[in-house]
Amino acid sequence: xxxxxxHARPSVDAWTLVGLALLLLxxxxxxxxxLGHAVxxxxxxxxxxxxxxxxxxxxxxxxxxxxxxxxxxxxxDAVLAxxxxxxxxxxxxxxxxxxxxxxxxxxxxxxAGYWMFSGVTNLxxxxxxxxxxxxxxxxxxxxxxxxxxxxxxxxxxxxRVAIRMLGVxxxxxxxxxxxxxxxxxxxxxxxxxxxxxxxLFNPHGMAITLTSAVAASFGGTAGLFNVAYSRRSNLxxxxxxxxxxxxxxxxxxxxxAAFAVALGxxxxxx
Length: 270
Description:
Elements: H1 3-7, E1 11-12, H2 14-43, E2 50-51, E3 56-57, H3 63-90, H4 94-121, H5 140-170, H6 174-199, H7 206-219, H8 224-228, E4 241-242, H9 246-263, E5 267-268
Parallel strand pairs: 1-4
Antiparallel strand pairs: 2-3, 2-5
Helix pairs in contact: 2-3, 2-4, 2-6, 2-9, 3-4, 4-5, 4-7, 6-7, 6-9
């Protein structure tokens, strides 16, 4: 072991990590719902009637207008994941790189998870059969199989890339493995619990909470378990250190609280 390896002990302050998750995850959800579904609703000549934390109602859409609104949220997720990966490759500071990693991993998993979820259940934005977001499409079972296969392939690739990215940032060794588990599981637990609590405020009952909030958080990012408990990297140990940032913690709490208060109970536009 070299002198550099002995002194390179990657670490992330636990409170900073919680604050970062509380800050980023509501913003990423709003990007899916507002920048994706709501903006596309307006762009197709319609007006949203309800803006919820995990759903948007866009009445009056038919045909391709309806399909475009349904697909828009996941398309925004995919674009954000790609941009975050490109940014991660250029960034050098530990905190900016971790931010880019969270955006890539969460949005990449959620996008692929939507395709798998709709393929299996026909529920959600990409369902091709009666009741689904893309319905009606010919040969809906063929579409469902295709959606699931594409989603699964993309999901596996996102998990593998996320593991490699953390390996580059943290390096190898026991401390790096512990930090990797801390990062992945904090994002998973904070994201899932906050989504569940915010989803309970919605006026449409447990159906929205389970099929949107919980499915997109606990279900969509379940690949973080694979990241957390993946094999240790063979790369040299890296001096990756993020200390306590009280401002991030405060901002995270405020953003999540505002998200819950404003969009949890739903904003009715007409």
